[in-house]
Design goal:
Blueprint lengths: L8 E5 L6 E9 L3 E5 L4 E15 L2 E6 L4 E4 L5 E5 L5 E8 L9 H6 L2 E2 L2 H13 L6 H23 L11 H13 L7 H7 L5 H12 L3 H18 L4 H8 L4 H12 L3 H7 L3
Antiparallel strand pairs: 1-2, 2-8, 3-7, 4-5, 4-6, 4-7, 4-8, 6-9
Length: about 270
């Protein structure tokens, strides 16, 4: 009996994160893209299988864990499955605010980036990019995107120096004060950068991490969980406590609450009444 191939699936959405035009997750078992171009950068990682593609008539092949694939805007390329098992991929379509178009030539020369740090950063960004996002998760995705963009620019342009220089402890304190004042309503990375003097986003995040041992988005999530705890103990229902603490909804609160507290919001609220 012939083996049954898994069904091809596609999931795509536009996240509320400036610079990302589309998130595209797919599993293809028998598919070939015709030659085409994008008006964005296509940043791809594979979670399974192998894919073969041509970029300006030169063919390349890549498998899971091999490399990050970067296809520049305006350059003709195709793509196709290699084996019967097909492949699973995750793609970010990035506009030129993340990567300037003048780096396209370098990407044509080296579309396969063998860079473990970059691969991990892209993976982490995908994890932060849900189809529905609270302000804290948008802040996390923006932060991760800033470091992905920085790493890509280093690889394509050869710049090794981090923008902004050494971490700034005073800047970290000012960012913490800003986050403390915006726990519920949140803040975007661009807003924080502008308020604090148009500081480069990666310099802002590095300064905060150096001073406090965690990135600012994680600090903000922790503050929101702490606020939800107080509201739950005061008798507020989990759904109301979630939005009052700055989470998107109860499901978002529950996901983070379990990580920080080790139980669900509802069980935590009941624990003092048992």
């Amino acid at each position: 009996m012939a083996a049954i191939r898994p069904r091809s699936t596609v999931s795509a959405w536009q996240p509320p994160v400036a610079g990302i035009a589309e998130v595209f997750h797919a599993r293809f078992t028998d598919h070939a893209y015709p030659a085409h171009v994008h008006d964005t950068w296509a940043l791809m990682i594979l979670d399974g299988g192998r894919v073969d593609f041509a970029l300006e008539r030169e063919r390349h092949g890549v498998g899971v864990s091999d490399a990050v694939v970067l296809l520049p805007p305006g350059v003709v390329h195709d793509g196709r499955t290699v084996t019967e098992a097909g492949f699973r991929k995750r793609v970010l379509y990035l506009d030129t605010s993340v990567l300037p178009e003048h780096l396209a030539g370098a990407a044509v020369d080296t579309p396969l980036l063998f860079d473990r740090a970059l691969l991990e950063r892209v993976h982490g960004l995908h994890l932060a990019l849900g189809s529905q996002q609270s302000p804290a998760e948008v802040f996390e995705a923006q932060s991760r995107l800033a470091f992905v963009g920085e790493r890509l620019r280093i690889r394509l342009a050869g710049r090794e120096a981090a923008p902004g220089g050494a971490p700034d402890a005073g800047l970290a304190v000012r960012l913490r004060e800003l986050l403390d004042a915006r726990v519920v309503e949140g803040i975007t990375l661009e807003e924080a950068s502008a308020v604090l003097g148009h500081v480069h986003p990666t310099h802002l995040i590095r300064s905060f991490r150096k001073a406090y041992g965690l990135p600012p988005h994680a600090y903000l999530t922790g503050r929101r969980v702490a606020r939800a705890r107080r509201l739950l103990l005061a008798g507020m229902r989990p759904a109301a406590a979630a939005t009052a603490a700055g989470f998107y909804d109860q499901a978002h609160l529950t996901r983070h609450f379990g990580r920080y507290v080790g139980t669900s919001p509802a069980r935590f609220a009941r624990s003092g009444r048992m």
